[in-house]
Structures are given as C-alpha cells and as structure tokens.
Amino acid sequence: MQKNKRFDQNWKFWFVIVALLIVSINAVLSEPAPHPHATHLKPKKKKPTPINQEALKEAKIYSGVLYLSETQIYEKLTYEYGDNFSPETAQAVIKHLKIDFNTNALARAKDYSNKEHLSKNKIYDYLITDKFTAAQANYAVEHLKVDYNENALLIGKSYSETDHLSKNKIYKQLIDKLDGSFSVKNAKYAVKHLEVNYNENALFRAKSFLEEEPLSKKGIYDKLAGNFGEEFTAENAQYAVAHLEVDYNSNALAKAKTYREDSDISDGDLREQLDARGFTPEEIRYAINHLAQ
C-alpha cells in the first residue's frame, strides 16, 4: 500500500513536468519565423542632407554683415535673378546657422539711429519694413541705447538747413507720424535747443515765394506769418519783407498781365483782383497804366 502511494506521487510529479514542457514547446512553435531579410526591414537612420556651402557663405554675409531678417535672407537666397537657390536649400542653411534675429534687428536699429537719427517709432517701422517680426522689432527698440532728444535735434537742424522752416513748422514735422514721428518731449527739446536764425529762414522762404510768382509785400507777409502758411512769427515775417529787394510795381504789373492773358477782364475787375492780392493803390495804378505798353 505504501509502495502504491509513492508511485502515485511520482506519477503526478512527472505529469506536471511533461505538461510544462508541452506548453513551452507550443509557445516556441507559435512564434513567427524570422524573415530572411529581417535586417533590411529595420528603419534606417536618415543621413543628414549636406549643407550647400555656397548658400551657407551667402547667408553668413546676409546675417553677419548686413544683419538681415530671416525672411529677407530667405528671399535673397531664393531670388530667381539673384542667388537662385532652392527653397529647401535656403531653409536648411538658415536652420543650420541658428541665427539670433533679435540681435540682427538690434544691429539694424543701431545703424538706422547712427546714420539717419530716427525716432523710436520710425526705427520700429523701418524694422517691420525690413520684415523682422513685431517681437524682434520691439526687442530692438527696447534694447537700443539712444538719446532720442539728440536725434530729434539733429533732424530739426536738417529741416532748418534744407527747407528753412519756422520754429513752429519744425516742431510739427518732428511730431508728424508721417514725418519725424518723434514724441512731443523729443520735439520740444529739439526746438528749444536749435540754434537757428528764424529771421533768415523767413527771408529765404520769402525769396523762394517770389521765384514762383509775383507777390505784393502784404501777400509775402501773409504767406510767412499765416496759420495756413509758413507759421513764422510776426517778427520773423516783418524782418523778411523789410530786407527783401523787390520792385512791387513790377510785381503788380506782372500779376495784372496774367489776369489779362487769362480772361478779358475789365480795368475795374483787375483793380479788385490786385487789391485782393494785397497790392497798394499806387502799385495797382502803376500796373493799369503800364498794362497797354
């Protein structure tokens, strides 16, 4: 009886062993056979596209020398009648260089300030025109160390030297959004510190008026001092007309001739027209008397 019991235990043990072997064999047999070319099915690492050295050379100049924006560099590299590289080549080169376009925008901003003495607003506008992003343009103008008062002073000086403007006109042009676009503070500083002889500016403007048309003394004064004219002070305008060497009789005659040539105007109407233009009675009389000669 004891012998049968031991046999029964041995039988159970070997049964478990055989069962485990069968399960293991089935698991192995159920695995798919390896493909004969399995090594070719593994994804290959893509080789990096070689950088076009000629394009890289040009891009380095555009960025490191000219400080262009990303868009401008791309456009120059791909321009049909210029470098004419492919879009893929241009993009690869720009990515390879890892350019800090904030730094480029700042460099361009410094150049604009140093060479053209622009306002903060104008520098920003120029950078946007150069196709920098708004964020890059903002970075540049916020990090630019510039005395905009001095820039406004230099621009105001150029207005005076070039156009011989009045103090009021210089101020208005400095703050005009389409012109100087400086702040009120910058413009006030400029006109306060400008060393300008506005009497001489008024005299220069008066002479330029006379080159365009024959005016009366009053007509010149009104153009100089009027709110819709040059906006010189009364003192500036008086200085100008006092220092002009003008034959107003001849001006009245020249004006009368233009009226007579344009229409069959009567002497009475002609007197009214010349009077409206600010000529004196003596100048009008001279013009009428000499018109037929």
UniProtKB/TrEMBL annotation:
Gene3D superfamilies: Winged helix-like DNA-binding domain superfamily/Winged helix DNA-binding domain. It comes from the Bacteria. It holds the Pfam family Lipoprotein_Ltp. Residues 52-97, 100-144, 147-194, 197-244, 247-291 form the Putative host cell surface-exposed lipoprotein Ltp-like HTH region domain. InterPro entries: Ltp-like_HTH, WH-like_DNA-bd_sf. This is Putative host cell surface-exposed lipoprotein Ltp-like HTH region domain-containing protein. It comes from Xylocopilactobacillus apicola.
